[in-house]
Design brief:
By secondary structure, the chain is an alpha+beta fold. Helices cover about 30% and strands about 30% of the residues. The termini are close together.
Length: about 230
């Protein structure tokens, strides 16, 4: 397993992204949280979600990401109540079983996970424009630049009960990539995949951030890339 994670501060005073990229027991655990803009303490909300995830999966033989997301949601809600303010965060996470390459990917919001091999699979953003795309009203090519791509419909810290999307995928002999929307809003999937395929994880992460900045991104950007190759 070769992996690399990096976060790059955007134009805001605080970096509102947090991440985890660790081997815990027999699992690799990757996750990115992006504090929701327009609300207070986005950096606190994202950190709370990641730290809750990290703390709760220690020493577990099996990991239920839906359950862990629910705990993270309650933790963000509690922190908001304590500070008497609204706060929220996206969260995307992947738990990869080292021996088999089987992965569980869960997400809430518009931080994404990709599995890249000969094809590109990705999570679907919880946004208004993605709902339109799901219904066929907007083409994917159009949705990249659609002005409605930013408002998200789901986030941790908004409601007591949260609808969490979970996917189970085989990531063996492929590239697993997680990122916040500071990257995915400014680098199209094809170019993103091409860079991830061409370079080692560290170089690819840095080149993707550079490309997003060249394309106008001023948001925080967090990228995690893992090469899941046969024989790991």
């Amino acid at each position: 397993m070769k992996c690399y994670a990096i976060t790059d501060k955007g134009g805001k005073e605080q970096n509102e992204d947090s991440f985890i990229a660790e081997k815990i027991g027999s699992f690799y655990v990757f996750g990115i949280a992006d504090g929701v803009g327009g609300l207070s303490f986005g950096e606190i909300a994202s950190k709370q979600a990641i730290e809750t995830l990290r703390k709760n999966i220690q020493d577990k033989e099996t990991i239920d990401l839906k359950e862990e997301f629910e705990k993270a949601n309650q933790s963000v809600l509690f922190e908001g109540d304590k500070r008497k303010t609204g706060m929220a965060t996206t969260l995307v996470a992947a738990v990869l079983q080292e021996s088999t390459g089987k992965s569980t990917i869960a997400h809430v919001g518009d931080s994404r996970a990709y599995i890249i091999d000969d094809n590109i699979w990705k999570t679907k953003d919880h946004t208004i424009v993605q709902d339109h795309a799901n219904g066929g009203a907007v083409l994917d090519e159009d949705s990249f630049s659609n002005p409605e791509r930013h408002p998200i419909q789901k986030a941790l810290g908004v409601k007591n009960r949260i609808d969490i999307e979970v996917n189970r995928k085989l990531a063996k002999d492929s590239i697993l990539l997680l990122c916040s929307d500071g990257l995915s809003d400014f680098v199209r999937d094809g170019e993103l995949a091409a860079i991830a395929r061409q370079y080692d994880p560290e170089t690819a992460c840095k080149k993707l951030i550079q490309k997003a900045r060249e394309n106008g991104s001023t948001d925080d950007i967090t990228v995690i890339i893992a090469h899941v190759t046969d024989g790991d």
